[in-house]
Structure formats: C-alpha cells, structure tokens
Amino acid sequence: MVVLQETGPARTSRGGRPRDPSRDDVIRAAILRLLAEVGYGALTMDAVAAEAGVGKATIYRRWRTKHDLVVDTISDINRAIAVPPDTGSVEGDVRALMDLVVTTVQSPAGSAIRSLLPAMQYQPALVEAFRNGPLAVWRGAFAEMWARAEARGEVRPGLDRTVTAETISALIVQRWLLTGEPLDDAYVDRVFQTVVLPLVRNARPTAG
C-alpha cells in the first residue's frame, strides 16, 4: 500500500489543547476509507470521528465543516509517487513509475479521489484541491523522470507534457476512472511493451 503523508507543518488548532499530529494521520486515513466506501454525499463528521476512534470535538477542532475536512485532506495527499524511482535508464524509470501509479490508484487515496468526481462538478474547491495536491504530485514525478532521462541523453528535450508523456499513464487512468477493468501486472506489462516502449524509443534524440 502507498504510504500517505501530510505535507508541511501541522496546522494549529483554533483553541484549547495543542493538536496531536499523530491523530491527524489517523483522521486523514479514516476520511479516505470512508470516502472510498460511501462517497462525499454520505460522508458525515460523526462517521469520521467513529471511524478514526476519536471524539467529535477532536474533529471540529480541526475542521468546521465536512467540506473543509475533505478539501484539506485531498490537498495534503502526498504519496510515494512523489519520489519517482531512479533505475538508471528511462525504460526502467517509466516501468517503475507505471507500477507506482497503479499502486496509487488502487490505494484508499485512489478510491477516495474517484468517489469525489461527481461532487467536483459543483464543488470548485474540491477541483482546486485535487489540482494542487494529487495532480501536482503526479505531474511533478513525471517531470522529474523525463528531466533525468533528458540529462542522460536518452530522450529529446521538452518531452514533459507532450502527447507522448501523457500516453504513459493514459490507459491506466482509463481503467481506473472509466472501465473498472483489472489493473493487474499482465495488463501493465502489455501496455508497457506494446504502447509505451515504442513511444519512448521514438523519443530518443535524433542523431545529427
């Protein structure tokens, strides 16, 4: 399972006893589990408190409303994908990062994000939290991977955010968000061998 971490220093409470950062981690994990199970609409502050094994006062010391709670949690998601593996070759890096993407979307965080998609249509703050949190981490990881490959002379400059770069994760995201078909090792291997590798090889610098 991908480890979730809170980025930045713990927020201070609005009064009373100092906040216990260890409880923040427990509460955030409970929020992700509940979002995956019941979705945004059915999520309640009482349910979060019960799932986390804390009192309601502990929840309300941190967030005034359910909306604040979910936006804050999604904004602070920081997954292992934030540190893309360095295998020494672009082919190895791409394959390892594809595996991390699969692990991420199949984790409680991935299930929670998928459950928020209907609510994002009428909750702009959720969209912004997703863009500044998980999506920014995702893009940063791929940008770092391409920059390393460019520095090694394995790909031509400026590959990040091209159609080739987008394609690396496109089929994984399609299964995650749209079709619900299995994201097993066999499928990832087929995508890597038949789609991704030819694109990566085609992105090599032209001899001149």
Summarize the topology:
Layout: E1 5-6, H1 21-42, H2 45-52, H3 56-62, H4 66-75, E2 77-78, H5 90-105, H6 108-120, H7 124-151, H8 163-179, H9 185-202
Antiparallel strand pairs: 1-2
What does this protein structure show overall?
The chain has 208 residues and is mainly α. The chain folds into two domains: 5-75, Tetracycline Repressor, domain 2, CATH 1.10.357.10; 84-202, Tetracycline Repressor, domain 2 (Orthogonal Bundle). The protein is 67% helix and 2% strand. The protein contains nine helices and two strands. It has helices at residues 21-42, 45-52, 56-62, 66-75, 90-105, 108-120, 124-151, 163-179, 185-202; strands at 5-6, 77-78. Helix 1 crosses helix 6 and helix 5 (90-105) packs antiparallel against helix 7 (124-151). The longest helix has 28 residues, at 124-151. The chain is elongated and about 65 Å long.
| Largest sheet entry | 2 strands, antiparallel
State Rg: 19 Å
CATH class of the largest domain: Mainly Alpha
Number of domains: 2
Total count of helical runs of at least 4 residues: 9
* Gross morphology: elongated
Q: Which fold name fills CATH's third level, the topology of the largest domain? A: Tetracycline Repressor, domain 2
Estimated helix fraction = 55-70%
Strand content is: under 5%
What's the average pLDDT? Answer: 85
Distance between the termini: 45 Å
CATH architecture of the largest domain: Orthogonal Bundle
